[in-house]
Task: structure prediction
Amino acid sequence: MKGDDRKARMPHTQGPWKYDDEGQYIFGPNTEMIAEIRGYGEYLPQEANGRLIAAAPELLEALESCLSTIQMECPECDGCKADLCTQCRAKAAIRKAKGE
Result:
């Protein structure tokens, strides 16, 4: 198995994650640092990036939960897994987050 393939299949650190805007770090549930947010130049979006990254596990869980309540395939594109409808876009985002 190639290195990139192995990384893609490794599970992510379980949430909740917390963003420390003082030091620009993301911490996992056991206070271990899992990421450092960096910015360059005049436009430094670390705070916005940090909040978004820290919310990632909860966003993934919420999206999976929303999709599990929908009991039908998408009528517009018949489950094409393309970016044609909200359901397929959500499924694509979940696959991307999971490295599939």
About this structure: The helical segments are 3-9, 46-69, 86-98. Residues 72-100 form one domain. Residues 46-69 form the longest helix (24 residues).
